[in-house]
Amino acid sequence: MRRLNLALGERSYPILIGGGLLSRGDLLLPFLPTSRVALVSNTTVAPLYLEAVVKGLEGVGAGVTPIILPDGEAHKNWESLNLIYDALLASRCDRGTTIVALGGGVIGDLAGFAAATYQRGVPFIQIPATLLSQVDSSVGGKTGINHPRGKNMVGAFWQPKLVLADTDTLQTLPARELSAGMAEVIKYGLIRDLPFLSWLEAAMEGLLARDGELLAHAIERSCANKAEVVAADEYETAKQGGRALLNLGHTFGHAIETGLGYGEWLHGEAVAAGTMMAVELSRRLGWLSGVDVDRVRSLLLRAGLPVKGADLGAARYLELMSHDKKVVAGSMRLVLLRALGDAVTYADAPREDIVAAIESCCRG
Ligand code: NAD
Ligand code: GLY
To answer: Do 128 and 243 reside in the same domain of the chain?
Structure first.
């Protein structure tokens, strides 16, 4: 088992990564203030993994209330959140109840927001089961739901007490979902870890073949990068850089997700196409070479990801992007690359270059 720490003073927590962890109630027990647990999952993940987690928890004396939600990004909304509150209240869960999320980023974001708000906040544990959630969404405390007008527009920062990433769960993940998670893995190489980018270029086929050791290494490096960034800028308030750098490709990608309707493209797929737009814009600003752009495109393609954006039209992209949370006082602060492995936040990209980058990534 690999162990990392997210250093946030009194709210620091471990990230445990490895095989066979799901049923390890003993790893969860030290983080439960009382024996009551509400286990939030969905109709796809629960039949696969709920029993193992429940058995592990019951084995250490915990009482578990399962809460099973419908599956999908389209359900990351008020209705699902209310289902969680209803179940917590119906089971008389109190402030000592720990909410445990078992699933991908949708379940983690929903359950985390419920934990942040139920009775003004209860303890929370993440058991991420997709690659994307193991390398990104389970770490760092962003929780929330979508609004029809914008992705993740309602939410809270609420750090978990523990992240338990069982790499065995990735064996049942659909190939398309594995690729989607790879977009966020590649992101860490692009924004701040050039040696990791090179490692990914060498390891991509093994990763897609689900080699357990390669996956564990990729998850560890991803979480180590994310933990460092979050520890330095937990609430994304840094004027330059900081946590916002984790959003490479996301402002463009969120436009695709919102523009097409949630669930049409997977989040990671939208991030991949959005990353190509950010990379192309960085080239237009003279920061990246054509060779750099080809290198990124080639890796995303090898990971099974789209490099061409959804054909919404540049005007619609700009409109949707202007609603993004990264827009501060009307100026579009984008995450761009000064070089591969060196990201910046930048608010001065000329509008015509943004339009040209979008259009060139939607053609062909
Ligand atoms: P997801 O939660 O929708 O999971 C993808 C699919 O895989 C779902 O159908 C799910 O039921 C299924 N699944 C999950 N684990 C499985 C397993 N082990 N075997 C088989 N099927 C499994 O999607 P995701 O990619 O995990 O997460 C995307 C969400 O995460 C988006 O809503 C995005 O906004 C959010 N996100 C949040 C953060 C954050 O910091 N909070 C960061 C990145 C992304
Ligand atoms: N996924 C971006 C963040 O956690 O800040």
So the answer is: no
